[in-house]
Design a protein that fits this description.
Layout lengths: L4 H17 L2 H16 L9 H10 L2 H8 L2 E3 L22 E3 L8 H5 L5 E8 L5 E9 L11 E9 L8 E10 L10 H36 L11 E3 L5 E3 L16 H10 L1 E2 L17 H7 L1 E2 L1 H14 L4 E8 L4 E8 L5 E4 L6 E4 L19 E8 L4 E4 L19 E3 L2 H8 L20 H22 L8 H6 L1 H13 L5 H11 L4 E10 L4 H9 L2 H7 L4 E13 L5 E12 L3
Helix pairs in contact: 2-3, 6-10, 7-9
Length: 584
């Protein structure tokens, strides 16, 4: 049995309260004394767990506790297990009460769970680079009508993106219900249910498409120039399926893996950036990844980053939206916006983690003083959306710097019907994506990985200098003194607050003798390939000057610090440094 962390915590609290209420600990102590005194043989001094359980059962304490416990769970669509091998799940239609601790969801309840199993196939090369191979949504409920709760399936996996019509292989799957259901359904009942759902889904999609076309016609009637604005109602996923953009965003809680919204922004930032591959010319390939596919390959386009960041900020209780527009030179882009209770509009750049406060300017008013140029890189905005709302920008100008983000003003933002969005994007809707998977804790040992990369870089630097006819002398103490600077850089990236720089500078001044010169070069990566990082560093003239330093009493230092985030994402900070005697 597998429970989400939040439910496990609630369960522990319930059990603790019940144990305290019934003074179970005191009764256990009495039983232990009785057991030792009366039931154990004189030559048996060890009290086993089995002996204790038997004593508790004989006195009815276990039965009393289980009868008093009452599990009450509200509808929790987003916390349903994604695997049918976990039938201890909560009915998405009604409140489920369990008092005996043993009853499993019946076959009818299981049949009502329409969420498929999302399987993602990735390929990892020897350098750790991942490639998305296939993404498949498995309809698992055929097992409910099979004998003994066991069935075998053969599915064809198709490629992704431009290769979504190309087969990449056949996957043989065996499904088994565990524990077995008390009563299986007939295959006819299962097939009828699936056929009805497909019919219902098709009708909902048709009605939403009709509504979206009508909404678009009304939007163009406001101002014909709206036709050139980036108003994105549908987007293709990795399988080439058109989905409403609102379905790519859902509130996502990070549990204890991320503590603050800014830390969440940093996590999204360290996930790799990669545009969807395109065959030939013709511009950018259209592909928005589902969350699971994005997290599995640990990289994606700006839309993938923005959807994930918006989902996390919604999970923290903020009013967040994905913005679709352009940046410099008219390049299409997506970023995140939050609306504060005081009206403050904040832009979050998901690719860098930077935050910008938006202050609109009125182009019709003569400026009292020269208006400073906005710091954010965004130029135009066509629409904003989240899991419940979609709004098209219908202001005279779509320039971000002049936009007013009063989303309740329908003269500035044309909304879509929330009911229409809910019909195809709400949790439980058969057309929506399955519940987002919980984030996984990092499997990377930060200390070990930091040391490994550092040793590899030392070897690469020594070999590089040897090829130039230079000797290499490393100074471990100087390397160690670089650590606070790297920690300070990461803290500043996460919080936008600079701290600890004074202590670092003071330590370096003490470590560098009079008449000597110190040079340092910090650089940041989101991958752990030492050779690739070294090649990038050499392309910087300043870093190359440090690595190839010539002079009197040259001492080199390098420090690596890996900061881990969920899904084995990481920020890798490297600093190369040298000190040498200055010769005038």
């Amino acid at each position: 049995m597998s429970l989400p962390p939040e439910k496990a915590s609630e369960l522990k609290q319930l059990i603790h309260q019940q144990l305290s209420k019934m003074d179970v600990h005191g009764r256990i102590r009495e039983i232990l004394a009785e057991t030792i005194r009366e039931e154990l043989a004189p030559d048996q001094q060890h009290l086993s767990t089995e002996d204790l359980i038997k004593a508790l059962r004989r006195r009815g304490i276990i039965d009393d506790v289980m009868k008093e416990l009452n599990f009450v769970t509200d509808s929790v669509e987003q916390e349903l297990p994604s695997s049918p091998k976990q039938p201890i799940c909560f009915d998405r239609q009604s409140t489920l009460k369990k008092s005996d601790g043993t009853r499993m969801a019946d076959s009818t309840t299981m049949l009502s769970i329409s969420d498929p199993i999302h399987m993602v196939l990735i390929k990892t090369d020897i350098f750790g680079e991942t490639t998305l191979v296939a993404s498949y949504f498995l309809e698992w409920r055929s097992v409910l009508g099979s004998e003994n709760g066991v069935t075998s399936l053969t599915v064809e996996l198709m490629g992704v993106g431009t290769e979504s019509k190309v087969s990449v292989g056949i996957l043989n799957i065996k499904l088994e219900m565990y524990p077995p259901l008390n009563q299986t359904l007939s295959q006819e009942v299962v097939n009828t249910q699936l056929a009805l759902e497909r019919q219902k889904t098709a009708e909902k999609e048709r009605l939403f498409l009709v509504y979206a076309k009508q909404w678009w016609r009304e939007y163009l009637q406001i101002r014909p120039s709206h036709n050139s604005r980036l108003v994105k109602i549908f987007a293709q996923d990795e399988n080439g399926i058109n989905r409403p953009v609102c379905s790519y965003v859902k509130p996502l809680r990070a549990g204890r893996l991320l503590d603050t919204p800014r830390q969440a922004a940093r996590f999204v930032n360290v996930l790799g950036y990669e545009r969807a591959p395109v065959i030939g010319g013709g511009g950018k390939q259209e592909q928005w990844c589902t969350l699971l596919a994005f997290l599995c390959r640990n990289k994606g386009d700006c839309e993938d980053h923005a959807n994930l960041l918006c989902s996390l900020l919604l999970g923290y209780g903020l009013e967040a939206f994905v913005c679709v527009g352009t940046k410099a030179k008219g390049v299409p882009h997506a970023w995140v916006m939050t609306c504060g209770t005081d009206g403050t509009i904040t832009f979050w750049e998901s690719l860098t983690g930077h935050r910008y406060i938006h202050k609109p300017t009125n182009p019709d008013e003569p400026p009292v003083a020269e208006q400073p140029k906005p710091l954010y890189p965004y130029r135009t905005i066509g629409c904003v959306f989240n899991h419940q709302m979609f709004l098209g920008n219908c202001q005279p100008s779509d320039a971000v710097e002049t936009c007013v983000f009063d989303l309740n003003d329908e003269s500035k933002w044309k909304p879509m019907s929330e009911e229409a969005i809910k019909s195809v994007c709400a949790p439980g809707a058969t057309t929506s994506l399955p519940p987002f998977p919980p984030l996984c804790a990092s499997t990377i040992d930060a200390s070990v990985t930091s040391n490994e990369i550092e040793m590899q870089l030392r070897l690469l630097v020594s070999e590089h200098r040897k090829d130039l006819g230079l000797t290499t002398v490393w100074e471990d103490q100087l390397s160690y003194l670089l650590s606070p600077a790297l920690a300070s850089y990461e803290f500043e990236r996460t919080t936008s607050i600079s701290a600890g720089n004074e202590e670092f500078q003071d330590a370096i001044r003490r470590a560098v003798p009079d008449g000597h010169t110190f040079k340092g070069f910090p650089i940041h990566f989101v991958y752990r390939n030492a050779r690739r990082a070294f090649a990038t560093c050499l392309r910087s003239p300043f870093c190359e000057e440090i690595i190839c330093c010539r002079g009197d009493q040259v001492r080199l230092a390098v420090r690596v610090r890996v900061f881990t985030y969920p899904e084995s994402a990481c920020a890798v900070w490297i600093m190369f440094a040298c000190k040498y005697r200055s010769v005038l």
